Every structure is written in structure tokens, then in C-alpha cells.
Amino acid sequence: MVELKGKAEGDGYRLQVQAAGGSAEFTDYQFARQLPDKLQLSLIYAGPGTLWTDLDKALKAGSLGFYSRCSRR
Hints:
By secondary structure, this protein is an all-alpha fold. The protein has 2 domains: 1-37, no CATH class; 40-73, no CATH class. The protein has 4 helices and no strands. The radius of gyration is 21 Å and the shape is elongated.
């Protein structure tokens, strides 16, 4: 009985992975399902090749409310 239940559960996961298009896509889907509904993201454009050199400035600007001002434009 335990073996049949385990096989049925395994078959169910296999079908879900196939439906998602593969194991990587299934993993992405499972990760995304666990994210909060009201997740807030901030996108920082620092120009080509300057993200790491400007990251400190961007973090300081974020603490001053810079992001909220930019999102209203």
C-alpha cells in the first residue's frame, strides 16, 4: 500500500514537471508561488557596466526616498 501511494505521488510530480516544460521551469514555478502577493521590487539603472561602482550611491538614494519619487513619474 505504501509503495503504491509513493508511486502515485511520484507520477503526479512527474506529470507536473512535464506540464511546466522541464525541471528548471517547475522549480521556478514553485519558487514564484511562495513569493508574497504584494512583493515590492526596485529596479536600479546605473548605466552600462556601472552597477557595482554605483551600488553604494543607489542604496543611499533609496534610503532618502529616491525610489518612491522616481516611480511617480
